[in-house]
Amino acid sequence: MEIDPGAPRNAEFSLIDRIRERACSRSDVLLGIGDDAAVLQVPEGHNLVLSTDTLVAGVHFPEDTVPADIGWKALAVNLSDLAAMGATPAWVTLALTLPDADADWLDAFLDGFCELADEFGVALVGGDTTRGPLSITIGAHGFAPAGIALRRDGAGFNDDIWVTGTLGDAAGALLQLQGQGLMSSKLRYRLDRPTPRIAAGIALRDLATAAIDLSDGLLADLGHVLQRSGVGAELDLGRLPTSRTLAEHFPDEQARWRIQLSGGDDYELCFTASPAHALAIEQALAACDTPATVVGRITAGKGLRLATPDGEAFDAGPSAGFEHFAGNA
Q: Among the four 26, 149, 249, 256, which has the fewest Cβ within 10 Å?
């Protein structure tokens, strides 16, 4: 990890020492934290898969989020990108911008970060620390068998559209934080501690035709798949997977559909696959304890049609999902 010359030298070395002490390692880390760069061994016959995401306080997590949950989420959203590619996670880098050299805050942050890293056997191999408004940038590295990584551009006519888990829980928590009802601890947990669907992504390597993780909302993220694949789609809103907690706190069905379509922060997988693979998908995902639901199908042409359970067209409203530069941060 690099040293910021603007920070007190002893304080910053102390922070880096704390990070190094907590970082797990792997046999394929030939050289990790402590040098100018890491040296890593990619398995023979595999492609390296790399993703980077930045989280900013007040934009990607509420200001009152506890440090352990920030650490968990910062890593989870990056691992979710690897899951969408069908990649096995291996290594991460961590760039921390902190207002102060707060060792207690860092220790708590590392509690959540390392808990998730240990779960997936991910090694922290380097990064950077600097002073400024709180933000976290993580580079996640994984690998997939050569030529096998899932992509966004493979959806084909009449493919089923699937999503894992349930949709809208995290967005519901954000609405509650903004004053729309009493806060649900279950919804807040889904906002603070999303589950990266690594095992599901790996299981789908030979079954899915396209995949994406749901960070900005189903409409926005499925839209990326449709654009890259040159196809259209129809979603059956009555099939959107809904947690009991979300239904209880947001009983208006149409309002709840809008939350599920545009809310974001689900970090579930959306993928397409031939109907002929439906049974194999159900079996593969059941084996890794991941629920999944068919919510629509790929159509010819372009565009996305939303249909109510009785077949009527549904207007989701002006918001198509989270956009960093659209004033909805």
A: 26
Q: What is the pLDDT of residue 11?
A: 64
Q: How far apart are CA 194 and CA 264, in angstroms?
A: 12
What is the architecture, at CATH level 2, of domain 159-307? Alpha-Beta Complex (3.90)
**Tokens at residue 230, please?**
């040159």
**pTM for this structure?**
0.91
Residue written as token pair 């807040």: 188
CATH, domain 13-145, list 3.30.1490.190, 3.10.290.10, 3.30.1330.10, 3.40.1190.20: 3.30.1330.10
Are the C-beta atoms of 170 and 264 separated by less than 8 Å?
yes
Q: Would strands 46-56 and 135-145 be described as parallel, antiparallel, or unpaired?
A: antiparallel
282: tokens are: 């159900």
Helix (H, G, I), strand (E, B) or coil at 73: helix
- Axis crossing angle, helix 185-192 with helix 67-84, rounded to the nearest 10: 60
Question: What backbone phi and psi angles, to 5 degrees, belong to 6?
Answer: -85, -10
CA distance 97 to 94: 10
**Tens-place pLDDT, residues 177-216:** 999 888 899 999 999 999 999 999 999 999 999 999 999 9
Give dist(CA 270, CA 280) in Å, integer: 17
**What is the dihedral sign for C-alpha 77, 201, 121, 186?**
positive
Question: Which amino acid, one-letter code, is at 101?
Answer: A
Amino acid at residue number 227: Q
Cα 99 from Cα 304, distance rounded (Å): 44
292 near 164, Cβ under 8 Å?
yes
Residue extents of the structural domains in the chain? 13-145, 159-307
3-class DSSP assignment, residue 177:
helix
